[in-house]
Write a structure and sequence with these properties.
This protein has 489 residues and is of the alpha/beta class. It has 3 domains: 2-100, no CATH class; 109-193 and 299-473, TIM Barrel (Alpha-Beta Barrel), CATH 3.20.20; 197-290, M1 Pyruvate Kinase, Domain 3. The protein has helices spanning 2-25, 27-31, 38-50, 56-64, 77-87, 102-117, 140-148, 163-180, 303-315, 327-339, 354-358, 360-367, 379-386, 388-404, 417-422, 427-435, 450-465, 479-488; strands at 127-131, 153-157, 185-189, 197-198, 209-210, 216-220, 232-235, 249-252, 257-263, 268-276, 282-283, 289-290, 318-321, 347-351, 374-378, 409-412, 441-444, 468-469, 472-473. α7 (140-148) links the parallel β1 and β2 (153-157). It is globular.
């Protein structure tokens, strides 16, 4: 056992040195973040260095030795490594004074969540965000009911409706807040680039284009000249066709149709339909298009988004950034955000593309140019982009990295969706809702049964919150255990 502990100590000391070296190597990056983000940036670098290694065997050895396996230590990873080394006999660390503690990391995350989402009456569950639809502009009673049912943040999606209707929604929110005395933040989502199908050729009259698996068709720019005999789809976002490369996947209608680029071109690209999962093999206009393998050169901020900024600065508390992909995207909005009004709105970076997932550490560090910001796991488009089978893994990784950076997370898209639409939940979506407890905020889409969803979700989250914080299990007393032992004693 003694020799095993010596080997274990050597392995942890090597790990410690790697984390310190990573911090030193990233000194310039850390120095560029906002002063209030310095500790968080440093901890994120430590965590990234840790996750470059395969720690599975080491974690088993730590567990056998009765020591922390370093799991659930995202918010304070260097201090946790130090704590393990202290148990193994190492007592002096020059970095101890600046390594963030569990208490400090937890406090930072809580403070930032409160700054973004406001105070909430129930500290045991995440904040609750509700997406507004057009009806909320004229139905004050519905808005007041949502507030009384537990809504903390109202989400206005700028991809829908117009400033006149947004104003009416906001007026109803303010009126309901005055009436109930319950606070409610206003979150406005920039629409981002509209990437939807058009039908410029065959099928235009019928309003749909019929395609078969293995059939060849074409994706064209709006002003491209094409053979009227061929099957053709257009795209509402100019400039995407030239970015396509042979072998790139192109997904239509939430991934129900999957095609592969065979022949790229400047204005016209030939695609082969390789999978159709829809009941009817027909693509209609205004269906979403995703390019998971393509590095798009078109900007994330549209002219419409920029025109919305003054309205958002006047009325909103939070600003959502849709389809963010690169550090340059974030820097551009940060600059515009500082010019658009008298106040800088905290940004929420919506992670909904494969490129954003790949760039997440850099996006977080760029977000740290501001004292506070958040991340939304936009699971709808994200699942289409990365593949549904990978969503569970990737949403977990996003949560880990954001906790290491002390960045509040919004868990979004299709939470209790069937319950919201039909009035009864599926078993799988109840299990999915349990995982939402790991985030600081949960977003609900608009639906017919929103009040029921709010009540059900709060019940699920309250029960779940008694068992774990983030992904750290806290072992509340189990009634099933108490009942058994009471009966046998």
């Amino acid at each position: 056992m003694k020799h095993a502990l010596v080997r274990l100590r050597a392995a942890i000391e090597r790990l410690y040195r790697n984390l310190v070296a990573a911090e030193q190597g990233a000194g310039k990056i850390i120095s560029r973040v906002h002063p209030k983000q310095q500790q968080s940036a440093t901890n994120l670098i430590h965590y990234l260095a840790l996750r470059c290694e395969d720690l599975r065997a080491l974690q088993d050895e730590l567990h056998v030795a009765g020591l922390s396996s370093l799991a659930s230590s995202e918010s304070h990873i260097l201090r946790q490594v130090m704590a393990v080394l202290q148990r193994l006999g190492v007592v002096s660390f020059t970095e101890k004074s600046k390594a963030i503690t569990y208490e400090a990391g937890t406090k930072l995350l809580h403070q930032r969540a409160t700054t973004l989402f406001g105070h909430k009456p129930n500290s045991a569950i995440p904040h609750l965000m509700v997406t507004f639809d057009k009806g909320m502009a004229t139905d004050y009673v519905a808005v007041k009911s949502l507030l009384k049912a537990g809504m903390n943040i109202a989400r206005i999606n700028c991809a829908h409706d117009n400033p006149g209707e947004w104003k009416k929604m906001i007026a109803n929110i303010h009126k309901a807040v005055r009436s109930t005395g319950q606070p409610c933040k206003i979150y406005m989502d920039l629409a981002g680039p509209k990437i939807r199908t058009t039908l410029p050729g065959k099928g235009k009259e019928e309003g749909r284009l019929k395609l078969l698996e293995q059939e060849l068709f074409y994706l064209v720019e709006a002003d491209a000249a094409f053979d009227k005999k061929e099957k053709v789809l257009g795209c509402t976002l100019p400039g995407v066709v030239k970015d396509l490369r042979a072998g790139d996947r192109v997904l239509f209608d939430d991934g129900l149709f999957e095609a592969v680029v065979e022949t790229p071109g400047e204005r016209i690209a030939a695609l082969r339909m390789v999978r159709i999962s829809a009941k009817k093999p027909r693509i209609k206009p205004e269906k979403g298009i995703n390019f998971p393998d393509t590095k798009l050169t078109v900007g994330c901020l549209t002219d419409f988004d920029k025109s919305v900024l003054p309205f958002a600065h006047q009325h909103a508390d939070l600003l959502g950034f849709s389809f963010v992909r690169s550090v340059a995207d974030v820097a551009e909005l940060q600059e515009l955000n500082g010019k658009a009004g008298t106040k800088k709105l905290p940004l929420i970076l919506k992670i909904e593309t494969f490129e954003a997932v790949q760039n997440l550490p850099a996006l977080l560090l760029q977000g740290m140019a501001e004292p506070v910001f958040g991340v939304m796991i936009a699971r709808g488009d994200l699942a289409v982009e990365i593949g549904f089978e990978r969503l569970s893994e990737i949403q977990e990784e996003i949560l880990w990295l954001c906790e290491a950076a002390h960045v509040p997370v919004i868990w979004a898209t299709q939470v209790l969706e069937t319950l919201n639409k039909s009035g009864i939940a599926t078993r799988s979506e109840v299990t999915d809702a349990v995982r939402a407890a790991q985030a600081e905020c949960v977003m609900l889409n608009k639906g017919k049964y929103l009040l029921t969803v709010l009540a059900t979700l709060q019940d699920i989250l309250h029960r779940t919150g008694g068992h774990h914080v983030k992904k750290r299990y806290v072992f509340r007393p189990l009634q099933i255990a108490e009942r058994f032992l009471s009966a046998v004693n």
